[in-house]
Amino acid sequence: MSENTVIQSVLLDDENSTLVILDQTLLPNEKLFLRLTSQNQIWEAIYSLRVRGAPAIGIAAGFGAYLGTKESKAETYEALYEDFKKVKEYLASSRPTAVNLFWALDRMETRFKKEEGKTVEEVKKALKEEAENIRKEDETICKTIGENSLSLLKDGMGILTHCNAGTIATAKYGTALAPIYLGKERGINFKVYADETRPLLQGARLTAWELNEAGVDVTLICDNMASIVMKEGKINAVLVGCDRVALNGDTANKIGTSGVAILAKHYGIPFYVHAPLSTIDLKCSTGNDIHIELRPDEEITTKWYEKPMAPEGVKTYNPCFDVTDNSLITAIITEKGIAYPPYNESLPKLFK
Length: 352
Ligand code: MRU
What we know:
Layout: E1 10-13, E2 18-22, E3 33-36, H1 39-47, H2 54-70, H3 77-92, H4 99-114, H5 120-150, E4 158-161, H6 178-185, E5 191-195, H7 202-213, E6 217-221, H8 226-231, E7 237-240, E8 244-246, E9 251-254, H9 257-267, E10 271-274, E11 280-281, H10 298-301, E12 321-324, E13 331-334, E14 337-339, H11 343-350
Parallel strand pairs: 4-5, 4-7, 5-6, 7-10, 8-11, 10-13
Antiparallel strand pairs: 1-2, 2-3, 8-9, 9-12, 13-14
Helix pairs in contact: 1-2, 2-3, 2-4, 2-5, 3-4, 4-5, 5-6
5-S-methyl-1-O-phosphono-5-thio-D-ribulose binds near residues 49, 170, 241 and 253.
């Protein structure tokens, strides 16, 4: 991925104490960067999926914790901590499934506590530094995930991906798309099939867009076409990202992922989950402990249509993630190596 094609979807403009985010709801038609200064604006940007993808949500939350606390008029460490905790609690209510949100906020709190005895200004500076560290580390982590993933792939392979786990969902490179970008840098090319990813079309609007911009061979398919492309032998591996991995390897990712995994098993195609350690939640023993976000009705009845495509007032059910059973996952690829089943043994080892 060359420097001039990199799209930075979450960045701090330090001079103006502003978080600059690429509004992902407008893609692919408009590339608009929003300048956010308050915790309310950052909460709204996360909730509305202007900034989205587990690692990018964590990065935005880190900067949100800094900018929200920066607004505080507190004059002592203790008073500032009270304000920080309110900001943290508020930002934590923006979305429930991606554990990176909570991981980043907890990390910000750990840093806050480390600064005990310092002045209010020093603590605010430390928070800024910590948020920036989260962003910078994510870039290195994604690159390493890409290296590890690439070791499992071969030039010319057909790859199916679901949702968007690309550069705009992270600081850079993405997780599931990182091997594709790294491969391209090295002359290793893949034929990528992007599921459109109903209902919010992250595959069509975001994955197809960013891969196309980067000159990757990408073909857009509707979600219900995954089976035919697998049957026709076009797919050699499925690469997906995730929002939370439980201790036993059960993995929450965008709605529809578990169906793709079931199909991959049927056709004997390896199914690889890409996860930074910050997305692995050892406190959840199985996928049943993962809180699945439910989103508004209009996302499946009217949002993308000129006219409603469902009868007015019809009952809806709009879970935005599902859990893929660990038995369907060939491997979980992290920055610390590749975990294979049984995951309740291999995942904890990665943290040692
Ligand atoms: O609702 P979204 O668009 O935030 O869902 C995103 C996904 O499901 C991604 O696959 C996941 O967060 C991994 S991003 C590297």
